[in-house]
Design brief:
The protein is an alpha+beta fold and 318 residues long. The radius of gyration is 33 Å and the shape is elongated. The strands form three sheets. A five-stranded mixed β-sheet has the order 1-4-5-3-2. It has a five-stranded mixed barrel with strand order 6-7-8-10-9. It folds into three domains: 68 residues, OB fold (Dihydrolipoamide Acetyltransferase, E2P) (Beta Barrel); 104 residues, OB fold (Dihydrolipoamide Acetyltransferase, E2P), CATH 2.40.50; 85 residues, no CATH class. The termini are far apart. The chain has six helices and 14 strands.
Amino acid sequence: MELAADSGFSFAMAKSKNTNDALQRLAEAEQQFLKTEFLAPAVHGGQVHVRIVGVVCQLKIEPADFEGWGVFAPVSYTEALLVRPAKLSERQRYLKLFPIVRLILARKEGGWWRALPAHQADRRFRIEGLVPVLLPEDVQLFDVVQARFDGSQFWFDCSDPTRDPGAATYLRQSLDEMLPPDQVARPELTAEERAAYAASYQVKYEASEQARRDREEERLRSALDHAGAKLRDYRERGDVYTITYDVDGRRHTSAVDKRDLSVRMAGICLSGEDERFDLQSLVGVIREAQDGHDLVRVGDQGLPEDHYWAVHPRRRRP
């Protein structure tokens, strides 16, 4: 028992001494740090990170809007001043401390890019989805670049000199033409480049579709507003919009032609004359029917549509 107690005491003393030594080394390194300048990359946010004896420290910088590679002078353990932009040679020496990762630029967001791995077979890093590439210079969509990974971020180093830039040019032209991914035909494209193209195509397609839907929604809303009605929702099916809207506080659903907003199915009984109206004139008919209390609904909450057309065959516009 005495031996165990003595051994435990000795271990505790040794551990305490090691901790004190580590704290002393950190304190000395911090004091030395305040006397030196350091190089660091700065992105939006007005902060940089430095490592002191293995401890990562975050410092606010002045000017706070500086972005790029800079040489800084610490004024405290939490603040630093920009001395000057870093030279290219200084930046290159810094980046060479970290491993190269080849990436394909697939989407631009503000002043930086998101990218996919250019070589999925590279097992050094586990990269899932798009990753940010920080502080890029003179690059375009689908370029293959060399980045350096510092353990948390991918910093742009240079364009990959081993990859034919013609491949990226072809992909950009194809995207401008909105060529579907399965029709991209350049034979020497890699699987990774095709994946980057598919990701960019999807983003652009969704943005284009959303813009189109916004325009169509505004078109429907404007037509209803002019008639004194309020759009609630709409759905697309083939060449028809099924719209839900309010007329004087009462909810209605109608189907209209996408091209000219002529009525396909009014949603109320018009004795088969639905197609004689457009959306704006239909609102007036509905309002009159509501005021006269003789409105008969057709569709989900009324007479089944097939029964309606059986009783009242369509009467086309003159």
